[in-house]
Design brief:
CATH topology of the largest domain: Outer membrane efflux proteins (OEP)
Oligomer: single chain
Distance between the termini: 99 Å
Radius of gyration: 42 Å
Number of strands: 8
Structural class: alpha+beta
Helix content: 55-70%
CATH architecture of the largest domain: Up-down Bundle
Strand order of the largest sheet: 2-5-7-8
CATH class of the largest domain: Mainly Alpha
Largest sheet: 4 strands, antiparallel
Shape: elongated
Strand content: 5-15%
Order of helices and strands: HHEHHEEEEHHEHHEEHH
């Protein structure tokens, strides 16, 4: 039984039809072609000439392309620096400004805006392009134009079947209605704003470095307090056990001291962990390797600082990078408005071209070889563009209003930050004085209670309460000193100072 194709059942008596096999025509040997038999034939000579001319054209275009090589892409550096040794707060600020990734990102944005500013100057200079055409067409005539988005575009009309063309085109915009000039001013203002934003990022990073350094020192001081608490509790437990062995105290006193020791050990473990976490946060802010063996060694100190809100606000509004950057953005928006009005004005440009062309129709024995130049001035007067100019002006004015409001908001925010920092600094100074007074009272109370307990006139609960009060007073002093230095860091940032 024969198998039929899919979809057609086989029936008895039906014969399957064979489809004729299609064969591809064999190529004619090279020696059989009349042009190959006669290399001096005019058609063979013209064919070799066309091939040579095409190779010359393509080689010239390739040479021009290689004349402007593309810069290689640099691989990003991801290796973090490793620092070892003790560092102070000022050194931490310097390291953060040098290695912080936020500042590096802001610096990259600054370079991008500067490059855009230089890019905006291209409209002041002439632009040139080299164009090569290799045309083989059946429908004539056709118009070809330059590839890419170059300003010096070239358009060529070819009315023959075969054509080769090489030309150089130059275009110089002489007047663009002010759009080129004000576009450059807007780009320059945005670049200046990027510089100021990088400086503002340095302020923020410096403040964060101070915060993290203060946090690391705070947790280290807290760990010292808990370590002292553990040592005091261990010593008291030793004495209590000796007294219990001598029969002078009950076993409940030993159990109470053991419970207090376990609690103190837990507090010390938590404090050590917080100190390690604070050091990791500091390393991250500094932009260094987390395996760096650094130590924050500058102790928390109280340095009184007299501040004036009025003077601080005035200084901040004059020098703070955020306020100045907002003003630069207003200038950029104003330039964009002027540039938008330039669409109503005429534009003038100068053009020049030199061209070499070879053209021929199929079947013709003659070839047209032409070369020459073309120069001229072009005046363009915009009449109607579907209300695009009107809407562009409205958009630019709306952005200008937005930039002005953002500038006012930036000034308000800076004034608010200065007032907050001044109030926090004043409150922190009072807290430092109060915490030191409380610490002196707690130390005196603990001394008296210890003497009473040693002479047999006190009880264990009084000692435990006094020790707890002393530890709390030490924590309060550490917290007050840290809050004062943090408030001082906020004051520096609010008034636009790194140091």
């Amino acid at each position: 039984m024969r198998a039929m194709g899919p979809g057609r059942p086989w029936a008895p008596g039906r014969r399957a039809r064979r489809r004729p096999r299609r064969t591809r025509p064999r190529p004619m040997p090279a020696t059989g072609h009349p042009l190959a038999r006669n290399p001096t034939h005019p058609e063979a000579v013209m064919a070799r000439t066309r091939g040579t001319d095409a190779r010359v054209v393509l080689g010239g275009v390739l040479a021009l392309a290689l004349a402007f090589p593309v810069a290689p892409v640099r691989a990003g550096q991801h290796t973090l620096p490793r620092i070892e040794g003790a560092i102070g707060m000022d050194q931490a600020v310097s390291l953060a400004i040098e290695h912080s990734r936020k500042i590096k990102a802001a610096a990259a944005d600054e370079r991008a805006m500067r490059s855009m500013q230089r890019e905006a100057t291209a409209g002041f200079f002439p632009q040139a392009s080299a164009n090569g055409y290799l045309v083989n067409q059946n429908m004539t005539p056709n118009i070809y134009n330059s590839a890419g988005d170059t300003m010096a575009r070239n358009y060529q009309w070819f009315g023959t079947n075969r054509a080769q063309d090489v030309n150089v085109s130059v275009m110089w915009p002489l007047f663009s209605g002010g759009r080129t000039y004000y576009g450059y001013k807007a780009a320059r203002s945005r670049a200046d704003a990027a510089v100021l934003m990088r400086e503002g990022t340095e302020l923020d990073v410096a403040m964060q470095a101070r915060f993290d350094y203060i946090g690391a020192m705070r947790e280290q001081e807290n760990a010292r307090v808990t370590a002292d608490l553990v040592r005091l509790t261990e010593e008291r437990l030793r004495v209590t056990r000796e007294e219990f062995a001598a029969g002078r105290v009950a076993r409940v006193n030993v159990l109470r001291d053991e419970a207090e020791l376990a609690n103190a050990v837990q507090l010390d473990t938590a404090a050590q962990s917080q100190a390690a976490l604070a050091l990791i946060a500091l390393k991250t802010t500094l932009g260094i390797d987390l395996d760096s063996a650094i130590a924050a060694t500058e102790p928390l100190q109280f340095v009184p600082e007299r501040v004036s809100v009025e003077s601080g606000v005035r200084t901040a509004l004059e020098a703070h990078p955020e306020v100045r950057a907002a003003e630069k953005r207003v200038e950029a928006a104003q330039s964009e408005v002027r540039s938008a009005y330039g669409r109503y004005l005429p534009e003038v440009s100068a053009t020049w071209m030199y061209d070499w062309q070879w053209a021929r129709n199929r079947g013709d024995q003659t070839t047209d070889l032409m070369d020459g130049y073309s120069a001229g001035l072009v005046l363009t007067i915009p009449l109607f563009d579907g209300f695009m100019r009107e809407n562009a002006v409205k958009t630019a004015r709306a952005r200008e209003d937005q930039a002005r409001e953002q500038a006012v908001l930036a000034r308000q925010q800076i004034a608010k930050t200065v007032n907050q920092a001044a109030l926090m600094l004043q409150a922190a100074e009072r807290n430092v004085e109060a915490s030191r007074t409380g610490l002196a009272q707690a130390e005196e109370q603990f001394r008296i209670v210890q003497e009473r307990y040693a002479s047999g006139r006190g009880i264990q609960v009084e000692v435990l309460d006094a020790q707890t009060a002393l530890a709390r007073a030490r924590f309060n002093v550490v917290g007050a000193l840290a809050d004062h230095q943090a408030a001082r860091a906020m004051w520096l940032q609010a008034t636009g100072r790194v140091r």
